[in-house]
Amino acid sequence: MEGKIVNRLIIASIGVVAIVIAAAGCGGGGDEATAQVSEAQFTKQVKATCAKSQKEIELVVTGQTPSGTDPFERLASLLKQEAEQLDELTGPKQAEARIEPLIDNVLLVSGIIEQKGKNAFSDPRIAAYQSEADELHLTDC
C-alpha cells in the first residue's frame, strides 16, 4: 500500500512539473517580440541620449564646470557615461549592430581624453569618431 502512495506522489509531482514548464513556455515569446522597439524608435532613443550628453559636454567645453574640476577628466567621464547609456539601449539587432562601433569609439575617445588631456584633440582617432557619428546621422554623439 505504501508503494502505491509513493508512486502516486511521484506521478502527481511529475504532472505538476509538466504543467509549470508548459505554462512558462506559453507566456514568454509574444511579449518579448512586441516589447522590442522599432528601428525608428531606437534611433530616436540614441539621438536623445547623445543630445543629453552633448548639453553636459557643452557646459564643460564652455568652462561651466565647478571650480577644482579637471575639465578633461569631466569630459572623459561624460563620454564614458554616454557610451554606457547607449550600450543599455535595446532595439532591432541590425540597428544595435550599426551603433556598436560608435559605442566602442566613444569609449576609445574617452580614454584618449583621459590620458592626453588637452593634447587629445590632435589625435586623429577623435576626428574619425566624429566622422563616424556624422555618417550615422548622430551629430550630437
Q: Uncertain runs with pLDDT below 50, 5 residues or more?
A: 1-34
| Number of separate strands | 0
Average pLDDT works out at 78
Number of domains: 2
SSE order, as H and E?
HHHHH
Number of helices: 5
Structural class: mainly alpha
Distance between the termini: 74 Å
Oligomer: single chain
The fraction of residues in strands falls at: under 5%
Query: What is the overall shape?
Result: globular
In short:
With 141 residues, the chain is mainly alpha-helical.
Secondary structure layout plus pairing:
Layout: H1 2-35, H2 39-61, H3 71-88, H4 93-116, H5 124-135
Helix pairs in contact: 2-3, 3-4, 4-5
Verbal overview:
There is one protein chain. The chain is built from 5 helices and no strands. The chain has 141 residues and is an all-alpha fold. It has 2 domains: 1-35; 38-135, no CATH class. Helix 2 packs antiparallel against helix 3 (71-88), helix 3 runs antiparallel to helix 4 and helix 4 (93-116) packs antiparallel against helix 5 (124-135). Mean pLDDT is 78; it is low at 1-34.
